[in-house]
Amino acid sequence: MSKHRNLIHKLLLIDKITKQCDIQFLLKQNLVSLQFQKIILVDDLNTITHAFQYISLVTSFHHIKFNGQRYYETSNMWETHKIKKRPKYDIDHPCYGYGECELSTLIYPKGEDLIRYVLRCNYDVAEMLSQDEQPKFLKFVEQMSKYKLKNVMFVGFNNLTIKNTCGRNEDHRGSNHCNIYLPMHDKVVMTKFATLYDLAIAYYRLKSHKWDRWYELFSYAMPVRKKNDIIVNLVFDHGS
Fold first, then answer.
1. What span, in angstroms and rounded, lies between the C-alpha atoms of 45 and 222?
2. Is 182 exposed, middle or buried (0-12, 13-18, 19+ CB in 10 A)?
3. On the CB side of 194, how many CA atoms lie within 13 Å of its CA?
4. InterPro entries recorded for this chain (predicted)?
């Protein structure tokens, strides 16, 4: 217990904030192994707005693990990654279509199948920021860039519901090309707490074009609070 004293103190604080009656609930979620370095009480909704803006800057969708096996973006006019070590089972079926997709997805996941998103993070965001950025967001970036996404946790809500108000991007431009069909989720709900990494995974679950950063460009997040629940609508520009 003594060597985890600081972490236990943080967990007790979280327990008090979230009014969780049993701290074992948190411990059973393997939170101890994550070694949180930053815990943020969401009392200002701008915190959530800044979090998704930050995610859009520092993360990119790299590949997935489908039942433990790696699958990457397949070749297309807008591909974002050059894959040097593509597994032999992940055949690179190219799509040469511009207006319509020529790729026939090989595998449609079933209920028992597991898909895990693997993101790439670049925490050196100084060159990505505009001088016109709001001072509060610049301060948020300065604070967050010191930590990995999994080491930052947000608390202070019962349910955090995240949605994409723009719906599916029907424009073929951009990339969702993969040998595994990657669904677009209607919403993602988190209870009591969420890491910055959890928010990033939700961000990509709600995008229809996982790899695309231009034809489905993130614009902003609109959070609202209803009693102790937070609902966030993500807004994307589908291009023209």
1. 9
2. buried
3. 25
4. DUF5868
Whether the full predicted model's pTM is greater than 0.85, yes or no, is: no
Q: Assign 3-state DSSP to the chain and report helix, strand, coil percentages, each to 5.
A: 25, 30, 45
Nearest one of 203, 149, 164, 201 to 40, comparing CA atoms? 149
Find the angle CA(49)-CA(50)-CA(54) to the nearest 5 degrees.
Answer: 125
Is the distance from CB of 154 to CB of 196 less than 8 angstroms? Answer: yes
- The counts of H helices and E strands in the chain are 5, 8
User: Does residue 234 contact residue 203 with C-beta atoms inside 8 Å?
Assistant: yes
Cα angle 88-69-112, degrees, rounded to a multiple of 5: 135
Kindly state the tokens that stand for 111: 């209920």
User: How confident is the model at residue 32, as a pLDDT?
Assistant: 46
Return the domain boundaries, the chain: 1-35, 37-61+120-237
Residue 194: in which H helix or E strand, if any?
A: strand 187-195
Report the run of H or E that residue 197 belongs to, with start and end: helix 196-205
Residue with tokens 């593509």, as numbered in its chain: 86
* 129-141 residue pLDDT tens: 766 667 888 888 8
Strand pairing report for 152-164 and 38-41: parallel
Contact 78/98 with Cβ under 8 angstroms?
A: no
Beta bridge partners of 66: 69, 115
